[in-house]
Amino acid sequence: MAINVYFAAGERLWPEYRAPLTRAFAEAGLDVALSDACTDPTQVDYIIFAPGGVITDFAPFTRCKAVLNLWAGVERIVGNATLVQPLCRMVDPGLTEGMVEYVVGHVLRHHLGMDRHLFGQDGVWRNAVIPPLARERRVAVLGLGELGAACATALAALRFDVVGWSRTPKAVPGVRCLSGADGLRAALTGAAIVVTLLPLTAETENLMNAERIGWMARGGVIINPGRGPLIDDAALLAALDSGQLAHATLDVFRVEPLPVDHPFLAHPRVTVTPHIAADTRAVSASVVVAENVRRGEAGEPFLYLVDRKQGY
Length: 312
Ligand code: NDP
Ligand code: OXD
Known about the structure:
alpha/beta, 7-stranded parallel beta sheet
């Protein structure tokens, strides 16, 4: 009998995912009936989910063996009380590559002072400001998971002085890895650029508050492709206005799309990108989804299972 997979990630994504998923299931040797419609929830074996999709109540999906999220972040589903099935988050090589490119690009922009030349060209030849070498610039990466570790590794390969921070101790070659409360202070102290790649949980909300922003080197830069509430917005604006921070590059926000009258949009030293740091790529992500369905059918442990207690 065919395995029933319900694509509940929204009608916008269905045309993009339909063919890659069909191909990935076939290549995994799975007989799957894939549909973006569900007439009988009791017959669904797996749900492919994305925030903003159609399901809010998982209770009717009594046979469902796993909910497979197309997003890496799960804060919008992990607390759903009706969700008793295993929840898997997305780890996709395409998404990771995209995040590395975004983070390295924005770190290099600030490291090299590119804005000075992009926006300051007024026909006058001035004494050049020579940027320090990467190895003279401390970059702190908060979060050393799939994305943080890949970004930290790429920055270390460019010879930045990279320090990473995570909840539990980690080892990433070329990166000074710290953990715990003392580790956070040590990671931030003297950091010229801070990249926040943490999940949003009760523990990480407002992690970058006034005190911790104050631990950074004066004139520092925050790059946040993690989640908006990781940073206290008011503290961030105050730090920009006082000169403690020179710039913030923000991809994610408490409210998305960012309201048109939000102070970030008008601030001369805030760069807003519209949650585009890294997108899940349909072709590579479909292979991950198919592998998890194969595992579910074979009774093997799922990949990228979310720890409900930790919230990520
Ligand atoms: P992972 O779960 O792989 O990694 C999370 C990292 O954060 C781990 O190193 C974890 O520590 C650390 N962490 C979690 N809680 C704490 C804490 N309380 N204190 C210290 N460290 C903590 O996630 P990913 O790397 O895959 O993704 C990270 C986030 O990036 C996602 O949750 C999502 O919010 C965001 N994202 C944004 C995108 C965008 O386009 N803007 C795209 C994709 C993701 P430990 O290693 O000890 O578990
Ligand atoms: C994600 C995201 O979590 O796109 O995958 O933010």
